[in-house]
């Protein structure tokens, strides 16, 4: 079924590209007579099309699917013809649907507007045929899939991040000269308890990834002091782990794949839409008021997670943070083990992507499932593997930067 949907998407893109070329660049598809004599000039002053311009649209589409986003943009800078072709909205909608499941992270700045993908396919009379290439006003689309793709694609998103003003750079440098206390983060979520490999245990016994820097003297009644780690051998930070219940009950629930009563929250009722409303336990509220941010470990293994209680519990924790909307939320979209590398696509048109269902829920889907786009706090979803801790450092790096830590070289 997935292959059928993908093929329909490709055919729709090719039809859109072909209609546009036939209408506004009729000479581009004409071949050279005897490979020496060009097609007679039609009176236009435009230069004769190059070799790539004369290729069938099907082959042009295949070429574009094999290029990186940056290379596609460079291709668009070579001529008026390619500038128009690479801006086809259906082309970038196809790229979004194809590539989003493989993005390893997403955040509040780079999250695509998924409602754009729920919109019906652009009608044949509303595609690129509605404007001539070169008309700036006509370049503005109702659904700018190209901008959404380039904003979210990991290889391009750095260019979309807001640049820091000069005074902010100076202020950051001066702040780095003043010793500051280590930031503290509260970590909770079903991914800490339901996976076959314990993320917390692996974290405590992986000095090559995050060395343990000790246990602070600061105590929180019923919670403890957490464990301090050293990031990049320079920056200390503290993690307070919040488990839903004791270890014996967690292990039994994991083996029997049953849900357990979460002692971190109290169910207060439901809102008008039927969604549950939770309030954190008193000791959890105390933690929320003193930490600098939160780490939520989501279970990203297929068929797991997706409970409405997750959204409600995340919002309950954030609302208990003293009314602060600046405290960041890092979501570790976690699976137990790495995906097998043996199976790869044999489709030559999509050789850089796996032609199979991934062994994890895509981070964009996790963000949508947890209702993160509706939050006012800064957030990030990072793909993580519990066994190898792959992806963890990228998430921690983002979290420390959001907390004002000046990471040298970042």
Overall description:
With 410 residues, the protein is an alpha/beta fold. Helices cover 34% and strands 13% of the residues. It has 15 helices and ten strands. An eight-stranded mixed sheet has the order 1-10-9-8-2-5-4-3, sandwiched between helices. Strands 6-7 form a two-stranded antiparallel ribbon. 31% of the residues are buried. The model is unreliable at 1-8, 32-39, 124-140 and 342-356 (pLDDT under 50).
Helix/sheet category: alpha/beta
Give the C-alpha Rg. Answer: 26 Å
Largest sheet: 8 strands, mixed
Please state the oligomeric state of the protein chains shown: single chain
Count of helical stretches: 15
Mean pLDDT: 78
Beta strands, count:
10
The ordered H/E elements are HHHHHHEHHHEHEEEHEEHEHEHEH
Q: Strand order, biggest sheet?
A: 1-10-9-8-2-5-4-3
**Helix proportion range:** 25-40%
> Could you name the ranges where pLDDT drops below 50 across 5 or more consecutive residues?
1-8, 32-39, 124-140, 342-356
Give the DSSP E fraction (strand runs of 2 or more residues).
Answer: 5-15%
Name the overall outline: elongated
N-C termini distance: 43 Å
List keywords for this structure.
eight-stranded mixed sheet, disordered N terminus, elongated, 410 residues, single chain, 10 strands, two-stranded antiparallel ribbon, 15 helices, alpha/beta
